[in-house]
Amino acid sequence: MRISEASRASGVSARSLRHYEDEGLIVPGRFSNGFRDYCQSTIDRVLVIRSLLESGLPVRLIREVLPGLTDGLDAGTEVVCSEFLHEVQGYRDRLAARIAVLSGQQAALDAYLREARRTDR
Questions:
Q1: CATH topology classification for 1-56
Q2: End-to-end CA separation in angstroms for the chain
Q3: Per-residue H/E/C for the chain
Q4: 56-91: pLDDT as tens digits
Q5: pTM for the full model?
Q6: 80 φ, ψ (degrees, to nearest 5)
Q7: Judging by beta carbons within 10 Å of its beta carbon (0-12, 13-18, 19+), is residue 24 exposed, middle or buried?
């Protein structure tokens, strides 16, 4: 299918599909006229990519583990999944730390606003 059809089928914009290709996340086929040709397995891969990106994972991490997640089971899949889960846990922990800092800043701003409203009366 062409890029417009792939965009509709996957719910991902044509621009995003081109970006995924530029990042090496997908490799669509080509028609004889040079237009991209997306097969169902590429669409399935796009859906996995989209899900991982929506979870906040960086493209670097997705690029590293995507072959093991989408190319079926082989001898190295357990190792890839174990390493991937370790990386995801680390990413999640860093995200939790950032959230804690932001929550502290938000609480400080809330306290400041409460105090400012009291003295404003």
A1: Multidrug-efflux Transporter Regulator; Chain: A; Domain 2 (1.10.1660)
A2: 66
A3: CCHHHHHHHHCCCHHHHHHHHHCCCCCCEECCCCCEECCHHHHHHHHHHHHHHHCCCCHHHHHHHHHHHHCCCCCCHHHHHHHHHHHHHHHHHHHHHHHHHHHHHHHHHHHHHHHHHHHHC
A4: 888 988 888 777 666 554 545 565 678 778 888 988
A5: 0.68
A6: -60, -45
A7: exposed
- Structure-token pair, residue 7: 């965009």
Token match 């409203």: residue? Answer: 117
26 near 46, Cβ under 8 Å? yes
C-alpha 6, offset from chain centre: 18
Token output for 90: 């680390």
